[in-house]
Amino acid sequence: MDGAQTVSAENKILINDLKQLAGAEESRVSIISAIYIRLNDEMRLKNIQDVKKDISYGAKSFGQLPEKYAVSMNSIVRSYIEEINKFMKAYNDQFINVLNVIHNAEQKQKYYFYKIRENTIMKSVCILAGKPEDSYKVLDEEILDYKKKLVLYERIIARCDKEFEDCKIRRDRDFKELFEVKEETGLTVIKKRNPVVKLVRMITNKFRGYKNFSRIVLQKHASIINRMKTETIAQYVKGVKQDIVDFSGEIDEMVQKANA
Amino acid sequence: MSEDFKIGEKFISGKLVSLDEENVEKLDKMAKSLKQVETNMKENIISKISQKQGR
Question: In this predicted complex, what is the ipTM?
Answer without folding.
Answer: 0.86
